[in-house]
Amino acid sequence: MNSRVAVLGAGMVGVATALELQRLGAQVTLIDRRDPGQETSYGNAGVIARSSLMPFNHPDLWKSLPTLLRNNTASLRYNTAFMLRNLGWGLSYLRHATHSAFEETTTALDALIRLSTAEHQRLLAEVGESRRLRDNGWLFLYRSQAAFDGGQLGRATMDHFGVRTQVLDTPALHALEPVLRPSVFTKALWIQDTYSVDSPGQVTAAYARAFAARGGIVSTRQLHTLQRNGEGWDVLDDSGQASYFDQVVVALGPWSKQFMGRLGIRVPMAFERGYHMHYAADSASPARLQRPVYDTGGAYVLSPMEQGLRLSTGVELNDCEAAPHPVQLELAEAAARQALPLGARLEAAPWMGSRPTLPDCRPIIGAMPGRRNLWLAFGHQHVGFSTGTGTAKLLGALMSGQPAPIDAHAFRAERFL
Predict the structure, then answer these.
(1) Of 72, 307, 355, 370, which is the most buried if we count CB atoms within 10 A?
(2) Is the dihedral of CA 369, 374, 379, 380 positive or negative?
(3) What is the secondary structure of 207-219 as a DSSP string?
(4) What is the pLDDT of residues 135-188, one digit of tens each?
(5) Cα–Cα distances in Å, from 229 out to 105, 224, 237, 247, 373?
(6) CB 381, CB 356: distance < 8 Å
């Protein structure tokens, strides 16, 4: 690829894409309003899990929909005005909660996650950050037998794709994670085909440093729009400055919708906002959490991080830039304190981020129809950090005309654009 390429967005997807295009020979400039890894890619649970092949709009969604629509659960809250403005997205999301769409999505995401896991392992070794990677899996925790039985579709799907799991009763769970109170959880599922990191933001930043050390340009400025210039594009920032590139990749995560809108392109994207807070470990407890855990009843993920124990919440459907409303964090914290000894909060205010979600819970990876030399990589919902490296590998092959490492059809932009 002997061309000048701008990658817009310095989250995991954008940084990994910049690294891959650089490896293929392109002259790459990575552009974002903040330093790499400081937005959505900073705040996730740091899990690289094959179990993430399960979309949220799976066929069993219909059973829980009446409860979710009450708008009072820890797993889902929504802004009514936002949902009315995005009714088309919501109806399309529900239309994809079918067995046929589920089969296509799980097959596509499984391939992308497997590719991404291998790429993360390679890149972490290359940049000298393998110490951040844990390979001891993660746990789905169930507070009742009925809750465990309700997860049968997920277990069957993981079995179908060969994901290694082990069902644990209360004594086995306590032996694996002594810090968890045995009276809280009846069953657990240990998903062994899972890696996790102790700081997703630092991993993203390390990849960006490697990109810069190899001659890539990292430019921090506020992007505005694109203008066609011959066969290529001018990238304009808010000051009016224009920079020419032969090709452009839009990897702006939740901000891709607004950016593409300035080009007259409507992206059917909603925002699954989430919050996190770091906590100290209880000094009186000799045990420490060894791996991320997902409390299915408490609707939170708790991950051991460099900064402390990171508690990540469920979904809030709202405008990307709306004011924080961290009621789910309060509920999640109360549930987590039932589950294990949790120390004090380590920050004054919770972090908030937005997960960019398309109606079929798959990202767009590929060319923008009708706009030559414009490429898209966004809409990764909950798996942007874990699948960013595979996205980069796939997009690099498409842009350079090489054979694709996995089937790209399920991720084509023509689904919606």
Answers:
(1) 355
(2) positive
(3) HHHHHHHTT-EEE
(4) 999 999 999 999 999 999 999 999 999 999 999 999 999 999 999 999 999 999
(5) 36, 16, 16, 11, 11
(6) yes
